[in-house]
């Protein structure tokens, strides 16, 4: 993976950064925690400029976020409700739960999009609920771009400071992505278990 990322960036320059960050949003196993710090190291070697590298990373990320956003739009809240009513009983999810989640996103969606863009493990996933909830494209793009710019800028600057040790960023942040993802799965399982226990108590 690292060799492929390095070769892509070396051969394609800024276009390579944009392409890699685009693919990172479509296929999360490709780590931005390695791409942008490598760009920062390349900047330290005077082979790239700081702001064009960040711009390429942001553009690639935003282009990669749009497919998931439109998948969410395509699925939509109503279809999700129908699926929940039809199959959701197996995991204790109903159309009412979907509606509650959608109402929450209507109130806090802009903040959620912004802050999730700064969180490893969920930054690529937030586009899906944004699309499902019917969040308008312009606010989605604005808050995503601001959060993404901060994230990409931080990773690039860290790689610039670390120099040849830029891989330490991925070494330390990589496990964070896994922990966040596992934490979300555990929280979801706990929520399902509590819902089932509550339903059982009601039936007694």
From the spread of the alpha carbons, the general shape counts as elongated
Query: What's the number of helices?
Result: 8
Approximately how much beta-strand content do the residues carry? under 5%
Number of DSSP strands? Answer: 0
Estimated radius of gyration: 19 Å
What count of domains describes the coordinates? 1
> Mean pLDDT, as a whole number?
78
The percent range for helix content is over 70%
Which sequence of SSEs, written as H and E, runs from N to C?
Answer: HHHHHHHH
Spans with pLDDT under 50 lasting ≥5 residues? none
How is the main sheet built?
A: none
Name the structural class.
mainly alpha
Determine the N-to-C terminus distance. 55 Å
Task: Tell me about this structure.
The protein is mainly α and about 200 residues long. The protein has one domain (about 1-204). It is built from eight helices and no strands. The protein is elongated, with a radius of gyration of 19 Å. The termini are far apart. The model has no long low-confidence stretch (mean pLDDT about 80).
Task: For the structure shown, list the relevant keywords.
mainly alpha; VTT_dom; transmembrane helix; DedA family protein; transmembrane; cell membrane
SSE inventory with pairings:
Blueprint: H1 2-12, H2 14-26, H3 32-44, H4 50-87, H5 95-116, H6 127-132, H7 137-162, H8 167-203
Helix pairs in contact: 1-2, 1-3, 2-3, 2-4, 3-4, 3-7, 3-8, 4-5, 4-7, 5-7
């Amino acid at each position: 993976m690292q060799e492929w990322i390095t070769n892509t960036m070396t051969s394609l320059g800024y276009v390579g950064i944009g392409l890699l960050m685009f693919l990172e949003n479509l296929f999360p196993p490709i780590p931005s925690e390695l791409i942008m710090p490598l760009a920062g190291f390349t900047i330290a070697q005077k082979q790239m400029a700081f702001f064009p590298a960040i711009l390429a990373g942001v553009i690639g990320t935003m282009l990669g976020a749009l497919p998931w956003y439109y998948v969410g739009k395509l699925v939509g809240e109503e279809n999700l409700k129908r699926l929940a009513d039809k199959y959701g009983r197996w995991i204790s999810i109903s159309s009412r739960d979907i509606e509650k989640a959608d109402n929450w996103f209507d109130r806090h969606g802009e903040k959620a999009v912004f802050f999730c863009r700064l969180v490893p493990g969920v930054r690529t996933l937030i586009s899906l609920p944004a699309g499902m909830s019917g969040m308008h494209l312009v606010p989605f793009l604005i808050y995503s771009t601001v959060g993404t710019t901060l994230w990409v800028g931080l990773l690039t600057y860290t790689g610039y400071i670390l120099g040849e040790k830029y891989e330490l960023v991925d070494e330390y942040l990589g496990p964070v992505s896994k922990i966040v993802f596992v934490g979300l799965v555990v929280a979801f399982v706990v929520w399902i278990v509590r819902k089932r226990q509550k339903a059982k108590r009601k039936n007694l």
